[in-house]
TrEMBL record:
Transmembrane segment boundaries: 6-21, 42-60, 66-85, 97-116
Lineage: Bacteria, Pseudomonadati, Pseudomonadota, Gammaproteobacteria, Oceanospirillales
Statement: the UniProt record of this protein carries the keyword Transmembrane: yes
Protein name per the record: Uncharacterized protein
Top-rank taxon: Bacteria
Keywords: Membrane, Transmembrane, Transmembrane helix
Length: 124
C-alpha cells in the first residue's frame, strides 16, 4: 500500500510540469489574459511539486505519515471540490475534471486507506 505514495508523487510531478510548461492558450492575448494567470500557474505547479516531495519523504520516513498525509488529503479533497465547482459553474472541461478533480479524489481516498491500514504508523 505504501507504493501509493510513489504513484501520487509521480502524479503530482506530472501536474507540476504540466502547469509550468503547457503553452498559453492561443486565444488568450496578453491584453485579455488576467494579470495573475501566469502567477497562479507557476504557484500551483510549485505546490504540486512540493507535495510530490512530501509524498516521497513519507515513503522513506513513514513515521511522518499521519501529519503530512492529513494535509495531503485536505489538499486533494480541495482540488476535487474546486474542480467540481469549476466543472459545474465555469465550463471546466470534463476531461480535465476527470483528470484533475477525480484523480485527486482517488488519491485522497487511497491516502485515507493507507493511514487506516497502516496501524503501525498510527500507533507511533
Amino acid at each position: 500500500m505504501e507504493y501509493v505514495l510513489i504513484v501520487a508523487a509521480v502524479y503530482n510531478l506530472i501536474g507540476a510540469f504540466t502547469m509550468w510548461f503547457q503553452p498559453v492558450p492561443e486565444s488568450t492575448s496578453d491584453a485579455s489574459m488576467p494579470f495573475d494567470y501566469m502567477q497562479y500557474r507557476i504557484f500551483t505547479g510549485g505546490t504540486a511539486f512540493v507535495f510530490a516531495l512530501i509524498y516521497l519523504y513519507v515513503f522513506y520516513v513513514p513515521a511522518s505519515a499521519v501529519p503530512l498525509l492529513v494535509f495531503g488529503i485536505a489538499l486533494k479533497l480541495w482540488s476535487f471540490i474546486a474542480s467540481l465547482i469549476s466543472f459545474k459553474k465555469y465550463s471546466f472541461p470534463k476531461e480535465e475534471f476527470l483528470k484533475v478533480g477525480v484523480g485527486n479524489l482517488v488519491f485522497a481516498i487511497l491516502f485515507v486507506l493507507y493511514l487506516v491500514t497502516s496501524t503501525d504508523i498510527i500507533s507511533q
